[in-house]
Structures are given as C-alpha cells and as structure tokens.
Amino acid sequence: MKKKFIFLILFLIIVLCYVTNISQIPSNVILLPGENLNIKKLYGIELIKNKNDIIETWQEDSESQKIDVRLLGKIKVKEISVTTIPKTKVIPIGNLIGLKLYTNGVLVIGLAELTNIDNEIEKPYEKTNIIEGDTILELNNVEIDSVKTLQNIVNEAKGNEIDIKYVHNGEIITSKIKPMQINKSEYRLGLWVRDSASGIGTISFYEPNSKKFAALGHGISDSDTEELLNIQSGEVVTSKVVSMTKGEKGIPGEIKGSITNGTLIGSVKDNTDFGIFGQIDDISAITVNDKYKNGIEIASRDEIEIGEAKILCSTEDGKSEEYDIKILDIYKNNDIDNKSMEIKITDSRLIEKTGGIICGMSGSPIIQNGKLIGVLTNVLVSNPEIGYGVFADIMIKNMMK
What class has domain 113-189? Predict the structure, then answer.
C-alpha cells in the first residue's frame, strides 16, 4: 500500500512538471532574422511544423508560421505562432523625454477610516476585500476613466449601494459598496485613488518607418503601491532638465526634469517590465546624434562581447553624447527580467558629471561594434559606476508587437 502511495505521488509530480512546462511555453514568439527558437522543454515534448518535421533549431526568415507542441510526437497540447521581424535599422536616441500615463480604471493607493455626518467611524470598503494596488474598473456599470468620474457616481448614489467591479490579484471581482455621507452634499468610499502618473526618462530608439519607439528599459510603477501601472493610454512630451544630483555609494543620483510646459510629441501604447513603448508623431522634436542619424542594426545577444562598448545618454537638454563603458558579464539565457548584461561606466567625463549611472539615465542605448546591443536599466546602489542593461532584441520584440 505504501509503495502504491509513493508511486502515485511520483506520478502526480511528473504530471505537474509536464503541465507546468507546457503552460510556460509561449503561444506567440517573435524572432530576429536567423535567431534560434530557444524553448525549454521536457523529454517527450516536441515542436513540429508541417505535420512531421521536428524542430531543433530555427533559422528561417519566413514572416510567420504555426508550430505544434506535441507530447510523445502524437498528442497536440499547444500551438505556437512564430513571427520573424524583417531586418531593420533603428535610430538610437539617448535623450530625455516626459511621460504622462493614464491608467485603465483608477488605482487604489490607500484605504482610510472615515467619520460620517453623524460623527461615527466607518469603513465603506470593508466588505469588498479591496486592498491597496487593486484597480477599480466600473461603478454601477459605468466605466471609470478618471478620479472625477468615480467621485461623480459616488455622489449621485446619495448613500445607496453601488455595484463595483475591480481587479484584485489579476482577477476581476464584482461586489457592492455603500458610500458614506461625510457632509450635506458629499459621499466617500474611504479609498484613495489615482488615475495617472508622470515623470521623465530616456527614449532609447525609434524605427523610422513606423515611428514606433522604445524607452526606459523598465516599466513605470506606482510610487505608493510599487505595482506596475496598468495603463489605458499615455502621452510623450518634451522635457527640460532642472537639476542633477551626482550619485555616490549608497546614495543614487538623479536627473530632475520638468514637463510642465512640455509639447505633445507622441503617444504611449504599453507599459511593461521591459520598458515603455509607443509612437512618436513629431520626430523633429527629438535631437538625434549626427553619428547615428542613418540608423544602426539591432544585434542578437550572440553577437555581444565582453569588453568595450559605448553608451549614448543626455545630461543636458536636447543633447546626447557617447561615453565609454565596459560589458562585464552577459546573461544570454535570461528572458525573465531586464538584467541581461552587467556594465561598468569607464568614461571619466561621465563619472565626473554624474558619478556613474543615475536615475533618469535608464533607457540610454548601449552600442558595440556599430550595433545596438541593449539599453541601460538599473544601477547598483553600492557602486553607481556599475549597472545592468536589457538586450536590444527583447526591446525590439516588445516594440514591434
């Protein structure tokens, strides 16, 4: 009996491993021309095209193909769409821009006890299980597109229960909430909410035909919840450098900018863990380094070498300059986060100006052997001269989706 139980447990563990592996195989894959299709799979799981051909590597430049994921060569468990991006050149930038992001719904950034009109303490949200970081999508079947819309619906309900739809841990929840009256004309839910975020960052590159752009190399998170903002739309505006704080060991530096009088030059489509993506409508508003005005190719990660490289960044308005860096390490198999390579600032001019890598420089393009190999993303707080970059192939794939 004990042996049967152990066998059953082992069998269930094996089944779980295979189910997990299959679920982690992406349904859509984007490749650069000539790039291998590297998908981790367990024994007995095969990638098959044209019904019979087993794929070990991928070296085709065809624009799009469907591939079957099969178990033991017989049972189809999934289908993958493989798209190859045509070889293209991008224009590296490295200049500061302003970003305004508008959320899909309104983000809950805090909860508060309220004192009602009868001087009693209440928590209107208590029975909904709403927590900080949730996103309110609808009230009484009306889409919430701003804090103002939410407040209007709450006041119009005059204390009657409201149907509420919100996102909690990735799941859409519907519930009811009763606004609390705090004075003769005003009602509240006890929720602090936000519908937008703004700041500055570095635009990395754009593709001249489509005018699509990539920036930052990381996403923008809410400052209160530290959650990645789920955006509905966004704007790209011109920015102005106000001041700069030099980085030191243990104290990150920062470029402070203003977008108060910024001119609208483009739109934001996606806010992801690998950067901000969208379209630039007014290219003339962005200054391009003369050396790269004709564009450069995107390097595959296999072309990146340990050793010397360049970074293109801006420490003053409308001007990007090249600085020397060194690639210290390369993590070729990392597609999980934006720490694809470790770099070190070696140019004494940039170290003198900034102390190394500072906030605001994220998104600065990294160039080696005349190709774009990556984008600056993070800094080591313990040593501002050292940081990380994300592969350019990850950025271009996200941009061209």
Answer: mainly beta
2-84 CATH fold: Immunoglobulin-like (2.60.40)
Q: Residue 287 — φ and ψ, nearest 5°?
A: -85, 130
Taking the model in full, what pTM does it have?
0.79
Nearest alpha-carbon partner for 293 in 12, 91, 40 = 91
Pick the CATH number of 89-100+197-399 from 2.40.30.10, 3.90.1150.10, 3.40.50.620, 2.40.10.120: 2.40.10.120
Phi, psi of 352 (to 5 degrees): -65, -40
Note if 347 is an active site residue.
Answer: yes
CA atoms of 240 and 356, how far apart (whole Å):
21
Instruction: Write the DSSP string, 194-225.
Output: EEEEEEEEEEEEE-TTT-EEEESSS--B-TTT
- Is there a shared CATH topology between the 89-100+197-399 domain and the 113-189 domain? no
> Over the stretch 311-334, which tens digit does the pLDDT of each residue have?
999 877 667 889 999 999 999 888
For residues 364 and 312, give the distance between their C-alpha atoms in angstroms, rounded to a whole number.
6
Has 168 been annotated as catalytic?
no
Q: How far is CA 394 from CA 28, 52, 217, 233, in A?
A: 14, 30, 10, 22
Q: Respond yes or no: is residue 64 known to be catalytic.
A: no
- Among 68, 218, 300, 314, the one annotated catalytic: 218
pLDDT tens digit sequence for 67-120: 777 877 777 777 777 777 777 889 999 998 888 888 888 888 888 888 888 788
Q: Which helix (H) or strand (E) segment is 153 a member of?
A: helix 147-157
Nearest one of 103, 123, 106 to 114, comparing CA atoms? 123
- Pick the catalytic residue: 204, 340, 362, 364? 362
- Which positions ≥6 away from 208 have C-beta within 8 Å? 89, 90, 91, 283, 295
Q: Where are the domains of the chain?
A: 2-84, 89-100+197-399, 113-189
Name residue, tokens 């991006």. 85
Say if CB 343 and CB 325 are below 8 A apart: yes
